[in-house]
UniProtKB/TrEMBL annotation:
SUPFAM superfamilies: P-loop containing nucleoside triphosphate hydrolases (SSF52540)
Name of protein: ABC transporter ATP-binding protein
GO molecular function: ATP binding; ATP hydrolysis activity
Keywords: ATP-binding, Nucleotide-binding, Transport
Source organism superkingdom: Bacteria
Source organism per UniProt: Blautia obeum
This protein's record includes keyword Transport: yes
Family: Belongs to the ABC transporter superfamily.
Domain ABC transporter: 3-231
Record-linked InterPro entries: AAA+_ATPase, ABC_transporter-like_ATP-bd, ABC_transporter-like_CS, P-loop_NTPase
Length: 295
């Protein structure tokens, strides 16, 4: 299974939400990482045929997805950031309803719903009304509906948004389990979601894919190193103006800063291992005064 994007662009009046993206994806987990407003959701909505591009094309195994129409949607699963449901439906009835919309035969749908309820950990909750579910349980029901047709392409938009740490870990494990033998595109601004499960990382900024590759390749693309050093409390602002600071930690003898710099920034600085969060700051953040100076 291969998705190929060729010079894909989406404009809303004079604003380019997606700007001339060329990209090829095959089976595996792709992590689409960027700040809010980078164009991630617009890109995913085009991949799901919900909106058409202004120019460019999206090919699935060499065929235009909009020309394929229903044939393409039969192999597609989509979990939007906010998905609709009838609050009075039980979890089981909700999934059966979605299965009917997807044109599944009742006998096949019942078997598939039972399998998925067990897989996503909702078997004991299948008779509970959707409105009574926690945020994490609703997201699990959401991924179950996306998996009903056993899709070859699974697109997940901010799947862990609003979840507590335990639910996020459980959800990441579930996505990893479901990712075998299919193409999974996971969009998020939560760095750890990508760090733990993505085979390939796509960095998106201002409607463009600025960098792509494995985590190791992305890390190697950065021309700076990561340093930690302890400075006095009253010096922190000065350091933030001079360097990108990805973390601050209060200690008994001062403030420990995690700094991105080509050269050693301080006599007591120690070089650290670079993480994807440092990469996020380097490519998307700025020095103090912008929105992403400290993550």
């Amino acid at each position: 299974m291969e998705l190929e994007l060729k010079k894909l662009t989406k404009e809303f009046q004079e604003f380019k939400a997606v700007d001339d993206i060329t990209l090829t994806m095959s089976n595996g987990v792709y992590g689409l990482l960027g700040v809010n407003g980078a164009g991630k959701t617009t890109l995913m909505r085009m991949l799901c045929t919900l909106i058409k591009p202004t120019s460019g094309s999206i090919l699935c195994d060499g065929k235009d997805i909009f020309a394929l129409d229903g044939e393409y949607r039969r192999i597609l699963g989509y979990l939007p950031q906010e998905f609709g449901f009838y609050p009075e439906f039980s979890v089981h009835d909700y999934l059966m309803y979605i299965a009917s919309i997807k044109g599944m035969r009742i006998s096949i749908a019942r078997k598939r719903v039972t399998e998925l309820l067990r897989q996503v950990g909702l078997a004991k909750m299948q008779n509970r009304k959707m409105k009574k579910l926690s945020g994490g349980m609703k997201r699990r029901a959401g991924i179950a509906q996306a998996m009903l047709n056993n899709p070859k392409i699974l697109i997940l938009d901010e799947p862990t948004a609003g979840l507590d740490p335990n639910e996020r870990i459980r959800f990441r494990n579930l996505i990893s389990e479901l990712s075998q033998d299919r193409l999974v595109l996971l969009s998020t601004h939560i760095v750890s979601d990508i760090e733990y499960i993505a085979n390939q990382v796509l960095l998106m900024k201002d409607g463009k894919i600025s960098h792509s590759g494995t985590q190791e390749e992305i890390i190697q693309s950065v021309p700076v190193k990561v340093w930690s050093c302890v400075v006095a409390n009253n010096e922190v602002e000065m350091w933030q103006k001079q360097f990108k600071v990805s973390n601050m930690k209060t200690l008994s003898d001062g403030i420990e800063l995690r700094i991105l710099s080509e050269k050693c920034p301080h006599y007591n600085a120690k070089e650290e291992t670079m993480t994807l969060e440092d990469i996020f700051l380097y490519y998307f953040g700025e020095k103090t005064g912008d929105d992403y100076d400290v993550l």
